[in-house]
Amino acid sequence: MTSSMDQVLQARLDQRQIDNLYRRRHLLQSAQNSIVQVDGKTCVAFCSNDYLGLASHPAVIDSMRRGVETYGVGSGASHLVYGHSQEHHALEEELAALTGRPRALLFSTGYMANLGAIRALVDKGDHVYQDRLNHASLLDGGLASNASCQRYRHADSGDLTRRLGKAEHGRKLVVTDGVFSMDGDLAPLPALARACAEQGGWLMVDDAHGFGVLGKNGGGLAEHYGLDVTDVPVLMGTLGKAFGTFGAFVAGSDALIETLIQYARTYIYTTALPPSVAAATRISLKILRRETWRREKLVSLIERFRTGIGELGLELLNSPTPIQPVMLHDDALCYRVGEGLRARGFLVGAIRSPTVPVGSARLRITLCAEHTDDQVDGLVEAIGKTVAEVGKNHSE
Fold first, then answer.
1. DSSP string, 81-122
2. From the CB of residue 209, how many other CB atoms can be counted at a distance below 10 Å?
3. Does the CA dihedral 309-46-185-146 come out positive or negative?
4. Is the pLDDT of residue 358 over 60?
5. What is the pLDDT confidence band of residue 396, given thresholds at 50, 70 and 90?
6. Which residues of 313-323 are buried (b: 16+ CB within 10 A; e: fewer)?
């Protein structure tokens, strides 16, 4: 017998299908790479955040294997009990060096890093200011903090400055993505840092999609703009994207890191990352700093893709990063184009509301240093044919 709860939930799910917003998981049957096996079909993947192609790098794999042999599979406890291994500690020191900050602190996921950091820094009577296009983890962190939350216009330092100036009491935490995950554009960090300096705000940047990709040494958007710990006192990055592994970190001053150790509940009350993951990440970090050709290759592929899509007359957002959104605007059209591309052997993200605002559905193409020119050209050709075919049927 179906319960009343199940009936209500099923009705909600049915409506999501009617609205062309239903999400389905696909079964990955191979290692993460530019070419993968998904649901029994070989496809070229243009939907992974493994921007530098390190997730399946032999040296990274070997380091993780040796880490398991040395430390076992799990860490066994939280960092504050006895789960903080020498691999964790060494990685934190190396991440601090990469970011040019005194210290760094590992978290199990980026979501936990953002939630924990925001809640540790502000409380009732304080203020959080968020870019309108911030990642859900940042928005949830603000809502969970008990602080007063506002969202300023996307990348608008003037709007932020006006809002900061109206707060008479309490701490003022400004939070922004570095690279916006759905649009691929860059936050105007110098202008945001100036606004914070003038108005007594603290700037926190989630640079999940910038680390490894931007900056001469792969140090992310802060390095790209030449900003230090005074300009950006709270800097968060993830390890599951350009690093190719798993986890996250926050980098900053000694006082910031000690505060997070004492007050960040998502750090205190969870099991530490497996030491083998930290060991693998240390090798990833060395590779991304040493092999600058990976970032150079990305720049070339981005230019090639944008030129091809422009020749098709399709709309692109202004993104200089491996995240390249092709705007289709209509949820149903976007979903069908995504399915059509999968049938042609190309995996892309078909992003619809509520992930993005209604009317801004897009193909979220992500490029990787392991992609070839021919693969990018093949994707562009497939997008052109699929949009034409699906668009014609969609309008009839």
1. III--HHHHHHHHHHHHHHTSSEEEEES-HHHHHHHHHHHH-
2. 28
3. positive
4. yes
5. low
6. ebebbebbbbb
